[in-house]
Each structure stands twice: as structure tokens, then as C-alpha cells.
């Protein structure tokens, strides 16, 4: 088999090797990133139909001393594959509930916080139990928390995942289905899932006003989602015309650079003070 392996390696392009090497450097650096306190959380506002703040999505950032800023699209999957994601996920949960909890007290305001949970986190032993315990420890109102999952979760045994989601929901935590429309799952899945929000993927919003197909898709997603009783969230809204189109179609919540980019907690505080002072 040694010979066989050698042959198959011959098919690897130098580009592929470079990528693999870089991935292993990222993995190596990821292992110590938590201790070195290289992670932090940024928050992107979600706006309702009236233009008021509804909530924020917590998004992780990694400022590596060795590699510089590494975007989550570049390292989350590596963290998943190397088993590091549960720990990083706990950091995001704790940090965001702590920071947002403090801000809400200080500003005497209430809003939702959405947290991304990846597929591997769900596989952790007693994931839901630990999640609910951690939420309780922070004292954050569970009914103001949204857990964002993606369709990739449902490659796994559906019944088991549904059970876990229902367990999370007993405490009032909401569930959002993220990046909707990009996975391979069928529409019939929607009626089986105990979800509260449907987030239309940015790729559909990007081409909303330029491609008839996207317009048809978004229109159908909103109608179907609303009929199933979900709140519909549009993400990646960058243009006013996209926003007005979506408002007209009955979309509930909006997230995108048109309103605000993800920001650190101190900037979010200023953003909130500014928007509530009028
Ligand atoms: P996502 O969950 O779909 O998050 C939305 C992404 O779209 C964010 O990228 C956000 O900055 C970006 N975005 C929002 N509005 C706009 C817009 O108007 N224009 C453009 N160009 N981009 C916009 P980000 O922060 O780079 O995160 C990328 C992905 O990494 C996330 O996609 C999510 O899948 C993953 N991720 C980020 N933070 C976490 C985390 O704490 N845990 C887990 N498991 N995954 C995370
Ligand atoms: Ca998300
Ligand atoms: Ca998304
Ligand atoms: Ca995405």
C-alpha cells in the first residue's frame, strides 16, 4: 500500500499541497488561540420592518499573532475537523451572553442575540444539557437567545437532531435555520423541523434585483416560510432597493451592510445609543 499511496500523492497539485500545508498551520495555531486570547466576538445588528433594532448576530473573529486576521470562513471548518469547535463555540456563547447581557443592563434595553452552532458541537456529549446550563449561569434570558443551525446538520439522523432542538426549545430558546436554500435538503424537511426563523442566504439577496430566478426563489421562500409560521430573515442586504423589495414581500428581519457591519461591543453600544436617542 506504500506504493499505492505514493502514486496517489503524485496527483496532488502543488496548489493542493500549499493549501494542505496552510491548513495544518492554521490548525496548529488554532490549538493555542483560546489560551492566547486571540479570539473575540463582533455583533451585527438585525433590523425589523420599522427600522428598529431587533437583535444581533454574534460572529467570531480571530486575530492570530502569527497569521494575522483569519476569517471564520477560513478556520471554522478546520476547527470542526480537528475537534476544536466545541471549545471555541463555548467561548462564543459565554463571551457574547456576557457582553450583550452587560450592555443590555447598562442601556436598559432588550434585544435578541443569535449564536451560530456548528454540526460538531451538536455531537458533543450532552450538548443541549451543557448549553442550557451555560445559559443559566450567565443569567441571560433564554427567550432572547436564538441558536443558528444550518441544513448540514440534517445529514445526520433527523429524529435525533429534532429531539435535541426540542430540548433546547423547552427553555424558550429560539432556533433559526441559516443559509437557507444553499443545502441539499428538500422542502419537506421544513415541516419536520421545530424552527422559528428562516434565514435566506446572502447569495439570493445579492442577485435579487439582477436575476429573475433569485427573485422567484426569495418570493417563494418568504411565502412558504410565512405560511409555516416562521420569521423570515434576509441577510447580506446591501442596497436600499433590496430592502424595499423585501419589505413589500413581507420579510420580517434584515441584516446587512446597508444597516451595519459586524462590530465590537463598544461600537455596538454607541450604535444603540445613537439609534435610541432620536
Ligand atoms: P453566516 O452565519 O452566514 O454569517 C453571516 C456572514 O455574512 C458574516 O460573515 C457577516 O459578516 C456577513 N455579512 C452580513 N451582512 C453582509 C453584507 O451586507 N455584505 C457582505 N459582503 N457580508 C455580509 P463572517 O463574520 O465572515 O462569517 C462567515 C461565516 O463563518 C458565518 O456565516 C458562519 O457560518 C461562520 N461563523 C462565524 N462566526 C461563527 C461562530 O461563532 N460559530 C460558528 N460555528 N460559525 C461561525
Ligand atoms: Ca449565521
Ligand atoms: Ca447565513
Ligand atoms: Ca454563510
From TrEMBL:
Residues 23-276 form the EAL domain. This is GGDEF-domain containing protein.
